[in-house]
Design goal:
single chain, 162 residues, alpha+beta, Gyrase A, domain 2, 2 domains, two-stranded antiparallel sheet, 4 helices, globular
Length: 162
């Protein structure tokens, strides 16, 4: 059952998928249409899930479920992964690569490989103050408070030179 993203409670569980490139306007519309259809049919063993999605920076797809309404199961998580893999195929993007790291350079979002990220920290292109995206968060509340953080306040700090 699809609901507006802003109507979900803070404890809602989220999954963040970052694209290896920015989506254009037509792709955003396509993803939105597909996401609403998917969420309207998203279930846990036949019971509805109350969920939503949002697209941030035209590059991050965030799926969310209100687990106060109904908990997700392994099967329902698997179906969401299949949905994202279908989007990957149709849009020719990579949204599942957890080895890519995203960070802000001014107002621009960059996504680089982990090895490039390490090199950028060595050359001070990325510093302790650089804003990174912590895609490992798991709740809507964390999205608001811990998603966009400085390197020094994230798991990425381990790549900084001592």
């Amino acid at each position: 059952m699809f609901v507006k993203f802003q109507n979900l409670p803070n404890h809602s569980r989220i999954w963040i998928y970052q694209s290896n490139r920015k989506f254009n306007t037509q792709e955003v519309e396509f993803i939105s249409e597909k996401a609403i259809k998917f969420i309207d049919q998203w279930t846990k063993h036949g019971s509805n899930l109350k969920g939503s999605y949002t697209l941030k920076y035209n590059q991050f797809l965030i799926l969310a479920v209100d687990e106060g309404f109904n908990n997700v199961s392994g099967c329902s998580i698997d179906s969401s992964v299949r949905f994202v893999k279908e989007l990957e195929k149709l849009l020719e993007v990579d949204m599942m690569n957890k080895m890519n790291i995203s960070f802000k350079d001014g107002g621009h979002v960059n996504i680089v490989t982990m090895s490039d990220f390490k090199e950028f920290t060595k050359s001070n292109k990325i510093t302790s103050e650089t804003i990174v995206f912590n895609n490992m968060i798991s709740t809507l509340e964390e999205l608001e408070t811990q998603w966009e953080v400085s390197v020094k306040n994230s798991w990425h700090k381990r790549f900084l030179a001592s």
